[in-house]
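Q: What would this complex look like in 3D?
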Amino acid sequence: MMKKWVRWKGLIGFAVTVVLLMLFFILFIDSIIKSSIEYTGTRMAGAKVELDNAEFHFSPLGMQINRLQITNPDLPMQNIIDIKNIHFNLDGLNLLRRKVLINEMQVDGIRLNTARKISGAIKQENKSRAPAKITKSDEGKDFKLPNINIPNADQILAREEIKTAKLATLYKSNIKASQDNWNKIKQDIPGEKKINDYQQRIDKIKQADTKDIQQLSATIKELKSIKKEIKADIIFVETSKNKINGDINKLDRDLKVLKNSPQEEFSRLSDKYSANTSNIGNVSHLLFGHEAKKYTELAMGWYKKIEPWLAYVDFSGSNTPTVDRRKGIDVKFREDKPTPDFFIKLIRATVEIEQGNFSGEIKNITNEQNITHKPITLHFTGAKMQGLDSILLTGTFNHINPGKAIDQLNYSMINYELNKYRLINNDDMTIYLDKAKSDITLVAQRKNNKIHADFKSHIHSIKYNNQASGNELSMMFLSSLNKTRNFNIYGDLRGTFDHYTTKVSSDLDNRLKDNMKHHMNQKMVAFRKTLKDKISLQARQPIQDAEGKFNNLNSGIKNDIAIRKARFNQQLNTTQADIEQKEQQIKAKSDVKKQQLKNKAKDKLKNLFK
Amino acid sequence: MLYLAKKGIIVLGQISKLIKAFNSDVAPEQISLGIAFAMFLGFTPLWSLHNLLVIVLVMILRVNGAAFMAGIGLFALLGYLLDPFFHQLGYFLLNLEPLHGLWVMLYNSTLWRIENFSNTIVMGSVVFSIVFFVPVYLGSIWFINKYRDHIMAWINKLKLTRLLKVQNWADKISSFIK
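A: Here is my prediction, written as structure tokens for the whole assembly.
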């Protein structure tokens, strides 16, 4: 029966198969691991992940990976990370339990942003790519100075109408109306004709018999009557001025308005065309905002990529895990000695950057911190580097309680040298920090899904290499910037992964604003003077004409009245003189008559006493 | 769809091999045992510890290799369709309170961790295969006997050569797709 069912040769076949499989495994394990890392890494990074080779060793169980290159998905001709060598040992027993436990990993020669010989892009069907990043050569190209135009007086005066000329024309027509009005008034004012009439009447009266006292008295009476008429005429002449006074006063007021109008026009135009310097405040955002946005997006992108390695935190609010229909899910049970499925106790790493090497450690890497009860920590330092005094990077990624996850990253660099750092490069100007040093601090924190990061860069010891075209504003901007020997840039980020805002500010804003304001004010003073001179020049002739006409009218009226008044006064005086003469004649005649009567009486008395 | 089409063509080749085995003078028990063992490899994830045991048994016991190989193809296709059911069955069993102690004990054993029993698909498909092992074995014997008594003669009379052609044709397509 046993012989019927069992074939012992099959056992040999099985043993041979197992041996062949083991041989295959030993011979090709390195290639299998290499392919697996490249395949899985490429899927995770979204761009080619390559390694020169992987060497698996059984005693002690471990692996060495040589030259691992991870392509930057946004720049396929660049590796975002290029690692010379990774070496680690594995816990064999736990590997059988599907747990990857690494006690210590040595990572040497980490380089960032290295050039690739061939593109590391991969075909990604139906995957929308992020908009093309602006490369280094484009930086600063899109910088535009705020629109501040220093006004040009000639252009303004060609465009704007100066109301003085209009006012002067109106004023002259008013003068003409007043002149006509005066001419009408003048017709009713007694003048030379009336004086001649008076004279004729006086002459006629004076021709009367002067021997008769009665006649003389009558003459005097008539002369007095004429005198009274002359006095009335004088009063009439004097009051005639009142009839035109309203016009004259109005003209006088209008003349003042006319004379003030150039000043008013100057004020109006200088207010209207004054340059506003308030929008200079956005300069630092224009200068550094673009770069801040670029690095923020880059950091957020990579943080999202490493997030699953920190811990699984479900921010969607959904508790239903997605099940792969061919893989199912692994249900976890309590372990006697709980250990995470993946755990690296310590990574010692050396990073090579342009300025030199810095090294550090990353501890307790796992996405099951609830088992290890230890957060992931990192601590990297570097000192006495070329063009950089010191660098310090520390971080804690605490997901022990996934509901209260806190990630914190601190980064600082002291005296980081910026050589030929381009700030602006456009048609109007080129601004380079030829030499400068920067002290940088970054504190970033993520608490649950809220992100909060503060950045400060103190840039000092600046030597510029700036050029500007003839553009006045560019020159002014450059001149303002050249005075600035140090400044601070501040950046902050607030929000969640999907909705965050970044803000970039700088004390450069206020300094540039003040400097620009000073420049602008100087320019505006010159502009105002030119504008004032040109308005005055335009207004001078019409005002002079109007004033001359007013003076002519006014003096004409005054003279006319004065002459008439003088003539009537003269006539009055003459008439008065005639009256007095006649009165003296009467008196003389009365005296003679009295004397005659006296003599006659004396004679009569003499005769009586004779 | 492409996956199913490929599998379908491969299975067509396997069916022809299976019919060839049915038509041979191999004992129905050996063919049926091959089919029953094939269920494990077809339904459960290939790289599992229990499959190593199944392969050892297949090689040691007098099991019909052609039936075993053909059965793997057939059950793999069926298994793809049954995977959601295996997941649900495995999930149910792994979360069954009375068995919790057993699962915890097995979970702490390296051997069982290698077996990956805590995976829902593994658990569901293995339990399903164990439960249906005997029925499939006995059912297959019954079917082969019936086939040999009634259907085989009828087929032989009709178009045996045609069936062989079908097999050749299916083999060609299968190798072309592979």
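A: To summarize the key features: The two ends of chain B are 16 Å apart (CA to CA). Residues 120-177 of chain B form the longest helix (58 residues).
Q: Very helpful, thank you.
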